Automatic annotation (TrEMBL), chain B:
PANTHER family: CARBOHYDRATE TRANSPORT ATP-BINDING PROTEIN MG119-RELATED, GUANOSINE IMPORT ATP-BINDING PROTEIN NUPO. PROSITE patterns: ABC_TRANSPORTER_1, ABC_TRANSPORTER_2. It comes from the Bacteria. Residues 4-239, 256-500 form the ABC transporter domain. Pfam families: ABC_tran. The keyword Amino-acid biosynthesis does not apply. The keyword ATP-binding applies. CDD domains: ABC_Carb_Monos_I, ABC_Carb_Monos_II. Keywords: ATP-binding, Nucleotide-binding. It comes from Candidatus Cryosericum septentrionale. This is ABC transporter ATP-binding protein. GO terms for molecular function: ATP binding; ATP hydrolysis activity. InterPro entries: AAA+_ATPase, ABC_carbohydrate_import_ATPase, ABC_transporter-like_ATP-bd, ABC_transporter-like_CS, P-loop_NTPase.
């Protein structure tokens, strides 16, 4: 058995062959895990290099992240972790779904806020809010039906609006050839400033209040149910898990998903193969952008209906950007996105506690950034991983020709 | 003096001997042409000389000194220059910027644009290649862009110039101008290697001509001792002909028809200039022609990738000029492509997923929005057995299959689509004998089943063996129609290369 033959055989054992990596390749799971591990190790080095104790820092970071049960504040931390993660998973799914179709939807940020503002509107807008308020009062012990309906309307309208917002970029791409990255990033800023510089301090502010107080508060019927009293944990985590399942189902079980993946796989060579089979690429791309935008907007509705109950004047951008990192760490697979979302949510939750020990919370951002960096270097990670595996195997089981020579 | 000598150069690609022991020498100040069909090994040879490929064996001599050319930089140092078929210009740069890029005149760390412009003007005057040194490259016609490329290599001091199919992108007028330029360069003492498959041009410009066929040098002839017919015969030669059984089928109704079809290529030039043809059920119509004579554009129009600018196109009597691929597919068009990697299959998709693309909507492969992958799997398993697609695991990606098995997968898919008109565009390109024979057998089965088949091929043996009628395509037009029993490879070869067409048109 020649050396090259040995290598080929071995690579094949781990799901890699000359034709690029296989979807059933176990390395697809190991690469993100190892990347995150490397990020954590390098994070320790960075903390140590700044003269602080990395073990103390990690102890605080993960001890208060909500991931590890126990401690007096655990229930609250766990709730915070899930509330944060729900929003990150939503934007992560949004970016991941677009990636699957070969599109870089960098506009999850804008779509998130469009979802948030529309959910706010339907949450407080008198015709809707009064109807459900009256319904709630009339139904008595069946008042939950009114809550369910009002919440659903807010979430659905938010998702439709976010989807439509993303579809604008899709339309510009399909009909006018505007690069999807450019289109979505421009729409981010349009959305952000329309909302924060006009709607929130203008038409949607209660007249008696000052412009610094944000919009009207949504009616009680629009708020997401709390599911773990006394914490503010709400149904958003359940909804986002449902969305993750729906995304997986769309991609791997439906005809649309089948076509979207075919488009994504051929995006860099002109999508000719699916086109030649009669697949309507423009339509699928428009639909894909709509779905993607709706997912990001779902996160925006959580922000309002689960946490803030109004669109505050102090909202800070970042949920969509984080979604990009999560989609990358999660390898664009719905399950991976859920896990990556929980990881980032944990880092963000625990970061605050680190500050108590005089360790800047930006260290958690550094870890996050490095995780993405190592994912981006996955070709190298893969390469060394295979080398290590080969090395170990070669020691345990020397190739046949060496034995023959000996 | 010999400017360049090639001694028994060979180049082995996996499964393909692209250059087989080629030797020739080029005198200084000579225009030396290398002709051959596509895939004959011309470009490989030039890439070896220019340092892009390393040869598997053999030696190169420049100015009678043995040299090792390991990179393009080495080649440039040896005063060689290549004018590529696809220009490598930056459209937003001026002519001057394009010419000096990589070797800019500078003052300290600053680019001395003024001096660059002067240098370019001097150079263009000296070799009398007129260009506007300050115009934007992107605004200039193709012929002038090529002149920029030539100036670029001259400025680097090139003494040996390689022109890789330079006329492929030029209009006839621009070609005439190019030849004037080449003569001037020759008069300056430059040595020119001219790669082409257009015999008329070769006969006009070259001093000596080397003919390549399937990687082998067929011979070197002096221009004055030869003619187009002889060159064509050397180029086409006799291929190993597979035994193709004759199948007689009663010809049915017209399935596909087009009349006076005009189609533009991607650059907006008319590549199909008024084609009319009919394909009946139970008939194989072969389109013979040298690559680049409008076949790709014709196919693109027939599969709905581009819309013809004028003319009519009908499938089963329905107007199909401005429709989408989906509509053509619905009407019964099936398509076997030569470009398996881009157009035929989604390479990262599994055999299973690829096998149903195009018929995945509706029963039996989906119910509503839901794909029924169990049914897809069953179907794929069946096809893998029927078509003997190896290694036979439906979960293998298409990209991991060999070319022959990829083509079988395409056939399996296309022939299982409901269809009555099959476009087979170079269906055996890059396939070994076994897979080729399989494709032939399937095409003949299709014919027996009464399907209308349009076969577009560069392989004459294939055209002659399979077709009931043969159309010869040259420069976007049909220049001849014949049947296999009334013609020979030689006669077809001449027609394909445009030999004698002018005479016919005039008479």
């Amino acid at each position: 058995m020649s050396e090259s033959n040995f290598t080929t055989k071995f690579l094949k054992l781990f799901g890699i062959d000359n034709q690029g990596h296989n979807r059933r390749d176990p390395l697809n799971v190991w690469v993100p895990l190892i990347s995150v591990g490397l990020a954590l190790i390098f994070g320790m080095i960075v903390i140590a290099a700044s003269g602080r104790n990395p073990f103390q820092a990690y102890g605080l970071l993960f001890g208060d992240s909500g991931l590890i049960p126990g401690g007096p504040a655990w229930r609250r931390e766990f709730a915070e972790l899930l509330i944060k993660s729900a929003m990150y998973i939503a934007t992560g799914l949004s970016v991941a779904l677009a990636f699957k179709g070969g599109l870089f939807n960098i506009g999850a940020e804008g779509q998130f806020w469009v979802g948030a503002i529309v959910a706010t509107f339907f949450g407080y807008w008198a015709p809707v809010a009064h109807t459900f308020g009256a319904m709630y009062a009339a139904l008595g012990s069946f008042g939950w039906i009114a809550q369910l309906l009002h919440g659903a309307i807010c979430v659905i309208m938010g998702m439709l609006a976010g989807g439509a917002w993303a579809a604008v970029a899709g339309y510009l791409y399909v009909k006018r050839g505007v690069n999807i990255v450019i289109g979505t990033i421009m729409l981010n800023w349009i959305a952000w400033f329309l909302i924060t510089s006009w709607l929130v301090i203008g038409p949607m502010t209660p007249p008696s209040q000052t412009f610094t107080s944000g919009t009207f508060y949504v009616a009680d019927t629009a708020k997401l149910w709390r599911i773990m009293m006394p914490t503010r944990l709400n149904t958003s985590i359940l909804l986002v898990l449902l969305a993750a399942y729906a995304t997986w189902f769309l991609l791997y079980k439906t005809t649309v998903g089948y076509e979207i993946r075919a488009i994504g796989y051929t995006a860099n060579i002109g999508m000719e193969a699916p086109r030649a089979q009669g697949i309507n690429i423009s339509r699928r791309i428009l639909q894909l952008m709509f779905f993607s935008g709706a997912l990001a907007a779902l996160g925006g509705t959580f922000f309002i209906l689960g946490m803030q109950y109004q669109f505050p004047n102090t909202a800070i951008m970042g949920y969509g950007w984080t979604g990009i990192a999560i989609a990358l760490i999660g390898q664009s697979e719905p399950l991976g996105v859920v896990l990556a979302g929980l990881f980032i949510g944990a880092l963000r939750t625990g970061a605050t506690s680190m500050q108590v020990a005089n360790i800047p919370k930006t260290f958690s951002d550094i870890i996050e950034g490095m995780a993405v960096g190592f994912i981006a270097m996955q070709v190298a990670v893969r390469y060394y991983l295979v080398k290590i595996i080969q090395h170990r195997h070669a020691r345990r089981d020397p190739p046949a020709d060496q034995e023959a020579a000996a | 003096m010999k400017a360049l000598e090639v001694r028994s150069i060979s180049k082995m690609f996996p499964g393909n001997l692209a250059n087989d022991n080629i030797s020739f020498s080029v005198e200084k100040g000579e225009i030396f042409a290398i002709v051959g069909e596509n895939g004959a090994g011309k470009s490989t040879l030039m890439n070896i000389i220019y340092g892009i490929y390393t040869p598997s064996g053999g030696d190169l001599l420049v100015n009678e000194n043995e040299v090792k050319i390991r990179s393009v930089e080495d080649a440039i140092k040896l005063r060689m220059g290549m004018v590529h078929q696809e220009f490598m210009l930056i459209p937003r740069f001026t002519v001057t910027q394009n010419i000096v890029i990589g070797d800019e005149p500078h003052k300290g760390i600053f680019f001395d644009y003024g001096r660059a412009v002067r240098e370019v003007r001097e150079l263009s005057e000296r070799v009398s290649l007129t260009v506007d040194a300050t115009a934007l490259a992107g605004d200039l016609p193709v012929g002038v862009q090529q002149r920029i490329e030539i100036l670029k290599v001259l400025r680097r001091g090139a003494e040996i110039l390689i022109f890789d199919e330079p006329t492929a992108v030029l209009t006839p007028e621009e070609t005439v101008e190019l030849f004037v330029t080449m003569r001037k360069l020759q008069a300056e003492g430059k040595t020119i290697l001219f790669i082409s498959h257009k015999l008329k041009e070769v006969m006009e410009i070259a001093d000596r001509i080397a003919v390549l066929r399937r990687g082998k040098l067929q011979g070197i002839v002096n221009k004055k001792d030869t003619n187009e017919e002889e060159l064509a015969r050397m180029m086409v030669g006799r291929n190993v002909v597979l035994e193709i059984p004759k199948v007689d089928v009663e010809v049915g109704a017209v399935a596909f028809a087009c009349h006076d079809l005009h189609v533009r290529n991607k650059r907006g030039y008319e590549a199909v200039k008024g084609m009319s043809l009919e394909v009946h059920g139970g008939e194989i119509v072969g389109i013979a022609g040298v690559q680049g004579n409008g076949q790709d554009e014709l196919v693109n129009a027939m599969i709905g990738f581009s819309h013809p600018v004028s003319g009519s196109m009908e499938l089963n009597g329905k107007n199909m000029r401005m429709v989408t691929t989906a509509q053509l597919r619905k009407e019964g068009m099936s398509y076997i492509t030569e470009d398996r990697g881009r157009r035929g299959l989604v390479m990262p998709y599994t055999v299973r997923e690829n096998s149903v693309m195009g018929q995945h909507l509706g029963r039996p492969f989906s119910k509503g929005i839901r794909m029924d992958y169990d049914k897809v799997g069953e179907f794929a398993e069946g096809k893998v057995k029927e078509y003997d697609i190896r290694p036979g695991d439906v979960y293998d990606t298409a990209g991991s299959l060999s070319g022959g098995n990829q083509q079988k997968l395409i056939l399996a898919r296309e022939l299982s689509l409901p269809h009555n008109f099959l476009i087979a565009s170079q269906p055996t390109r890059g396939l070994d004998v076994g897979a080729t024979e399989f494709v032939y057998r399937k095409l003949l089965e299709e014919k027996k089943a009464g399907k209308a088949i349009l076969l577009i091929s560069l392989e004459l043996s294939e055209i002659l063996g399979l077709s009931d009628r043969i159309l010869v395509m040259f420069e976007g037009r049909i220049v001849g129609e014949t049947t296999p029993d009334k013609t020979t490879e030689e006669a077809l070869g001449l027609l394909m290369l445009g030999v004698g067409i002018d005479k016919k048109v005039q008479s």
